[in-house]
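EI: anyone free to look at a 159-residue chain?
SC: sure, send it
EI:
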Amino acid sequence: RRSMTLIADGKHLLTDVWTSVGVLVGVGLVWLTGWQRLDPIVAFAVGVNILVTGAKLVGQSGTALLDVSLPKEDNEAIRDFLDAHSNDHVKFHAVRTREAGYRRFLEFHMLVPGSWTVKQGHDAMEDLIDEILDEWPEMRVSGHLEPIEDPRSYEDMDV
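SC: here you go
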């Protein structure tokens, strides 16, 4: 499940495999050709591979420790999902996604008629969250209910 630790372990194992292959190739080429310089050339290539893989892992680990938005494709899918649930009475804004480690979060504001009862708004929000969780079970969802006709509901549109 998107665990940076598992990804790092897998890449570490892969660099070990490439190191072993490099040793075998280097020794084999020296044995076949008699050219002693092939061994350090192959070792250098293996070392560069380890450094590049390590640098990429450090970059990805740093990002995994910070809150970042979900990938563009996921954000578009969530936006399409909410658009499909929008109508004259229900609208959405202030949609924010983030990922922290392996956890994923979705926050949004749901605008509904002010004439709805608290129960109507709550039920609509809970039903929507249930549908979101059916689609994205790993998501932690937080929704904020606002009256659609109140100008204050739109003050955070640029947020």
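EI: Residues 4-33 form the longest helix (30 residues).
SC: 👍
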